[in-house]
Amino acid sequence: MRDDFGSLFALNAALRSDPSASVLANGLPCGPFDQKLLNELFFTLSSTLSELNTVLDTANIVPDETAVNQLVSAIAKIAAANSPTIAQATVTLWVRTDGNDANDGSANTAGKAFQTIAAAIKYGLSRYVFAGFSLIIKLGLANTASNPYAPPGQINGAGNVTIMGGDATANNYVIGGAGPASGNSALVLAGPGSQITLSNVTVQNTGALNHSVGSVQGGSMTTQNVAVVMTVTSTYSPFFSFSGGNTSIQAGCSVSCVTVGSVLYADYGALILSGALSVLGSPNSTTAFAYCRQGAFRFGQGAAFSLTGSPTGQRYLVLANGVIDTGGLSTAFPGTTAGSVASGGQYI
Length: 348
Fold this sequence. Notes:
By secondary structure, the protein is of the alpha/beta class. It folds into two domains: about 35-85, no CATH class; about 140-345. About 15% of the residues lie in helices and about 35% in strands. The protein has five helices and 27 strands. It is elongated and about 100 Å long.
């Protein structure tokens, strides 16, 4: 029966030696019967040692031959660093146009902030478990439409997230672009499992393929002090809800556009106006200022329109059992022609 190696073989450094450069390059100079065996053993052990050193390096642990628990410590350290932390309070992550998506968003500096809203949300959801708390994405550097923050597009499964400008002046923080190239989406869109609050920002839609701000498939979007600007002719809308979405337009919001399908659009979704909406210029609605199809549009307390120009087009169109509830105001929506209902739609 083969005996185990004695302790001196394992621990006495005088009986061991590191491989020379020649051995590393050419293998162990042994007899013909054991050379291949020992070379394979040496190769396997070297590969294993390299893998172990990679684990220790990743955990910033210096290898120590006298320690027998370094691998366990390294694995635990790496796991802790990459496991979500249960949030003990609201978490704020910073985004700046001069930031970097490799940062951690921990401070309002170029060296710490993310560059994109989407990267900040992804990081926040991967690093934290929000048990009763929420995530704030704060834009830390004032910008202009020529250097906008990239729109995040559809946000799914995010829970409660607030995207906000660094101060109360919406024009100082511009989220802009054309939106997804595939179209039929939005620049900022609350998707399934997301309750998004958008505040103190301008959303500038420079394309004709997407809506600007809204909700879809059970997502919830709330806008506060948000300016929506659509710079080109489009069949899409500044504010919308679709397929079970819920969009709430609160105080301080405004719309500026040229020609759109509808300024307010609800299709199988709910849209609530809870504050005065400023309509800038004279937008033309090719369908109707307010469009509701198998959805619900409701005026909340304080709902009103503040006009600086003369919007043109039909005031409203309610179809397919959709409901617009304005409290009976026949001229609640601006426009140049009367609103209409069809196929079971109701305007009350």
